[in-house]
Design brief:
Blueprint: H1 3-9, E1 13-15, E2 22-23, E3 29-30, E4 32-34, H2 43-56, H3 60-77, H4 79-93, E5 103-107, H5 110-122, E6 126-129, E7 135-138, E8 157-165, H6 169-182, E9 185-194, H7 199-205, E10 209-215, H8 218-226, H9 232-243, H10 245-255, H11 266-275
Parallel strand pairs: 5-6, 5-8, 8-9, 9-10
Antiparallel strand pairs: 1-4, 2-3, 6-7
Helix pairs in contact: 3-4, 3-5, 4-5, 8-9, 9-10
Length: about 280
């Protein structure tokens, strides 16, 4: 599966023009955004889906079942989303055959876009995790009556499926504590995109196998340039940013001082610049 093509086709990875970097909410400059939920088909559909999820999660008891129906309708109708889910299943089962996985988990809320269809298609129970540290289990359509609920899944093997891995703060704050309450063990985490920002180290420190369909690194963008998804100038900018994000920002604003006026939060950015 060519995940790189799908990411650029849907603008799930969006790179700025070489002379117009994005302002991040952190106050820093950067050359790209990653919005993995756009793989639902496109940006418009993905935003509408998130709005639906915000409504559905108000009723945790029915959220997963109702959301799964929406996701599977789109799986059968949208080739991009189907290819994404099928590619994730192939990536996962190449290392963990379905009969070796007791549960698949996914966390509120973008994880569910990917974890629920994968669990359904592999006929594996899904642990739906919420930010308030609660969870529920959605049994597969062809489930056995003796499948234990999440509250008694001691020693169960769980694979967490997420849209994106940054620093793994959600795992530390919520997903691992939820599983720990039931005695389950997180064997592996599979993400659509690993942003390569420290989450992998967290997984290694906690003996969790880290599987990524795509890792955002220099090689990823070199491949994108070779396939004309980005220009050579954009690639050069990204490589400079990856080498040292703070120095990239300092150099850019030194050469383009007027660009500071376009900052989302000029005061925050000026505070950051004072420390560089």
């Amino acid at each position: 599966m060519n995940f790189t093509k799908l990411l650029f086709q849907t603008a799930a990875v969006k790179v700025c023009p070489a002379d117009s970097p994005f302002w991040y909410t952190s106050g820093m400059l950067g050359p790209y955004y990653v919005n993995t939920h756009f793989l639902y088909g496109n940006e418009t559909k993905a935003k509408a889906l998130l709005a639906s999820i915000d409504e559905l999660k108000n009723d945790p008891a029915t959220c997963a079942e109702k959301l799964l129906a929406i996701l599977m309708d789109n799986y059968h109708a949208d080739e991009i989303f189907k290819n994404t889910i099928d590619g994730m299943i192939a990536t996962l089962t190449a290392k963990y055959p379905a009969n070796t996985i007791d549960y698949i988990s996914g966390g509120e809320r973008r994880d569910w876009i990917f974890s629920l269809p994968v669990a359904h298609l592999l006929n594996i129970p899904h642990i739906t995790m919420f930010k308030d540290l609660s969870c529920s289990v959605l049994k597969p359509s062809k489930s056995s009556s003796d499948q234990p609920p999440a509250a008694s899944c001691e020693f169960a093997t769980v694979i967490h499926i997420a849209d994106l891995l940054n620093t793994a703060s959600s795992y530390e704050r919520a997903w691992l504590p939820i599983l720990a309450k039931s005695g389950a063990r997180l064997t592996a985490s599979m993400v659509v995109v690993d942003r390569n920002q420290g989450g992998g180290a967290f997984m290694a420190d906690n003996d969790i196998d880290n599987i990524a369909c795509v890792t955002i690194d220099k090689e990823f963008f070199q491949n994108a340039a070779q396939n004309d998804y980005i220009s050579v100038a954009q690639l050069r900018m990204i490589i400079e940013y990856m080498a040292d994000p703070k120095q990239y920002m300092k150099d850019f604003l030194t050469n383009h001082p007027e660009y500071l006026e376009t900052a989302k939060d000029k005061a925050l950015t000026e505070t950051i610049l004072a420390t560089l």
